[in-house]
Structure prediction request, 953 residues.
Amino acid sequence: MKRQILYCLLLLVNIPVLAQTPYFDSLRTVYQQQEDPEQFIRKQFYFARAMVIDYPDTSLYHSDLIIKSSKKIDFLKGEAFAQELKSKAYHNKSEYELAIKAHERHYEIQLELGDTVIAAMVLQQLGQEYNDWGYSDRAMEAYFNALEIYENNESWDNVGSVYNDIGTVLMEQDRNEEALDYYRKGYEIRKIHSTEDRLYYSYSNLANVFDNLQMYDSVFYYTDLAIEVSKKYEDHISEAIQYINRGYTYRALEQYDSSETYYLKALEILKDSPYNDYLITLYVNLATAVDFAGNHQKALSYLDMSIPNVEKTRALDLKENVAYTYATIFKNLKDYKKAFEKLQESQEYGDSLNAQVNETTIQELNVRYQTQKKETELAKKQYDLERESLLKSRILFGGIVIVLLLTGIFLLLRYRSRLRRQQTEMDLKLERNEAEKLRELDRIKSNFFANISHEFRTPLTLILGPLRQMKHGTFKGNSQKYLDIMVRNGERLMNLVNQLLDLAKLESGRMRLQPEPGDIVKTVKAMAYSFESLAERQEINFEVNVPKATIITSFDKDKFEKIITNLLSNAFKFTGEGGQVYFSMELESTGVKQGIVKLKIKDSGIGIPKDQLPYIFERFFQATKSSDLQASSGVGLALTKELIDLHGGVIKVDSKEGIGTSFTVEIPLAEINIDRKEMKLEKTVVASSGNNEKLQVVAGDYQAEGAPVLLVVEDNEDVRTYVKEQLEPEYFILEAENGRKGLEIALERTPDLIVSDVMMPDLDGLELCQQLKQNDKTSHIPVILLTAKAEREDKLEGLQTGADDYLIKPFDATELQVRIENLIQQRKRLQKSFGKHFSFTPGSVDVSSVDEVFLVNVKSTVEEFLDDETFSVEDLGKAVGMSRSQLHRKLKAMTGNSPNQIIRTMRLVRAKELLEKRAGNASEVAFMVGFSSLAYFSKCYKDHFGMSPSGVD
Prediction:
């Protein structure tokens, strides 16, 4: 035991020396004699792994020893240990190609060992290595392969981890909406299957992606959750990181006092920590926030606190950043001498850093060249072998082709003969089916005339009776109440007539399916969600489950709507207060370009007696359990059945008295493209509380996120609520109770479209429209005015203020939706026009509109600071009089490009021009257009132009 303890101490203290001496070999021999060889290899692995960060070369030496020892005793797991060591050591040495090869070999060994979950973990690490090296496509492939293994083994915590990794790759590519989707998937899985401390990473990732999307309410929400978990598990470093992120968010919002507060919270945690480089970055951010707030002397004192940490660091980029921040503060203090000295110091650090980057780039290119050279030699050998084999098989292949051609001709003739015979049989079958259908229509017709007069009498009585009394002056009662009753019964008659007309068309054969291509999931979802307000009024829990996918198929939207509306209307009609209604949709592939749509509607209503179930689809049938208040015409289900039959589908019913009823519909559709990887259920539950408040819980995507943002400005709360309900969920709705509040929200949130009343206190709709159109921040936003003034002069006055459309009250909700959609589509076409005709390349353009004046101002400002590497989106926003978020939303709405993309594009276009004119080499041109890193410049240039800067002739 003493010998073992001595060996461990020597190995831990003197490993870098022992690894290079014969003494180590002799000591290892002695130790092996005292212990099982496999156990010795394991301990050697643990010791070497402890040194992999500080002494990667020593770890590589041990990994070679482990491989040799493992092969001698046929210990495959030992080889896996060695490859794990190599991958980490090479990564720490920035030799990524070798790190990737070690990861790939480690993965192969784990597959041989049969441990698929461990293999998937290695594959996940390989994906991270691919991403670090810039192979994002290979990284995604590795992640999805690991995901499949985890799911097959029900390793759910790892599934959530991979979803987060995929989201990170997408976010680095500025594909933030897709990243958000995967981060949410990871969060949902971890919420169910992981410990609470693991949720920290999901909260942090969600906060980061919402920050990129500039959705700051969501950023604050998830940051608070991450801080809460960090405090609960006493993970103070993670807590500090979230305070830093919160500080950066407030700085982006120009709330510098709040930014300083959270940076100081992080500093309180990190000030005595060993994370020296983290502290430097924190001091710089703290000083910058205070400097932006105008307190330059205080900013200088914060930056002075970083000096002991700066002296200890070897990171040139951090020293450069500190020096540059000093220069900025001294410039604001008007101490230009010190500002110049610090700027020179920053430049010196930058030059040293660039020299290191160039050396690293040369090493990386050399590794790639050697790898490519080996691959080329192997490919040439393979080509020679394949060519020789091809020459030998050519004659044999020719004979096989002739035989196959003759066989194919014979089979084709035989197939055509069989096809003609099948067609004849099918024609006969269709004729028989048609005759059967005509007989069935005759039966329906005879029932129709027997019941139609009875069905019309009740609503006509409730309409004509009060009307006659009102005419003769004998009416007693609440006239408004009876007007509502008459309108309701009139609508009931209209609905019944429409259903009868549809049945008449079916009987005469004039009703035909009119399929059009579209997204069936989106259509069905919209129909189901239209019943949410009814569920809230009746205090019924309404649950909807539909696939979260885009399924493009050809279907008749009108008839699908009638089927779903009739079934859901019945469910709500026969379900009492506090009951439940459930709606689901599934898609099942049945072969090439064929599929089945399955709909299920289930309620907890009164149910249907078992003996009456066979008759519910007959016209005018009413179950004996129906009350007067729940009376059914008996036409809806009959029409539903006929429409489903028209599609060639089936409807099934299952019901129990006092428990509820369930309808299942199956309709075949052609050309369904089911993406099973994306078919995750989106679940919405609408519940009712005692005070009739609507509670909504959404799992999966938020319903309104990603939708166009509309601002409704209306002083009448009822009208405002009505407009909002008609436009949700297709749009994300903001509300303002007057023109002044509407102007504030428009300037802050920059919506995609504004619907405003004209007559309002404080600031009316005409003045609001005029101010919006004269402000650069909002001039591009379409405005629709609503008014009760129907005169031509009034309409002209509204349009002269710059309104894009004008709608007279009372207006039709459908017409409002169409006009909104038209204006949004028009704005998208204008966006494409700006993107096509307004080029963000250095130079001059003609100006012809207010929006183009704004774009020219943006362009000229960026062009002025092309060579300033510190020029940021915040600087551009200040130059044009907007905040970062306002500038981002306006440029996105007008051009489809973010401010960062515009700045980077203009820099790259100018760089290409300079390179073509031989104005300098790639390094010099990079600095001339504001890139401080040559490696990053080369990457951006290649991504944009498809070639490296050195390839420009």
The longest strand covers residues 580-591. Residues 157 and 195 are 9 Å apart (CA to CA).
